[in-house]
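step: validate -> pass
step: tokenize input -> pass
step: predict -> running
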Amino acid sequence: MEKYTLSVLVENHAGVLSRVVGLFTRRGFNIHSLSVGTTVDETVSRITIEVKGDIYMVEQVSKQLSKLMEVIKIKTLRNDEMVKRGLVLVKIKSVPKNRGEIIEVANVFRANVVDISASTITAELTGSDAKIDAFLKMVECYGIEEIARTGMTALERGADTLKPDK
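step: predict -> pass
step: emit ->
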């Protein structure tokens, strides 16, 4: 199964996200990653959806999404034509003896240490799934207490934009 990234512009009001996600649920399609936020125009939100499947499934979902009244535009983004990032906050067990090592690993991955306590270090990292997964693998030997991970968000590279038609 291949991973596809859909960028969907929708009207920004209550219930829209539920209808979009419900469309996937009713058809038995699993959402791998989901990210939502307002755009430059506060009346419009961008939903970035990652799904695993085949091109037929993605085309079918796109057609169904376009039938929803609140959906303004949909675009399937290709890997070589987008910038895609996710965020993870990870709380790592730490004692004074290994604190320097953990901070060193965080620095190598360009993670920000955002909190330190007597027994933990919390790091923030943005990047691709592969980068985030590699970081988590490197710190798991210290003990991961907690993880909060966002869905991926993406924009097209270059001058191309996904905007409502005016």
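step: describe -> The beta strands are 2-11, 31-38, 44-53, 71-77, 82-93, 112-116, 120-127, 144-149, 153-156.
step: cleanup -> pass
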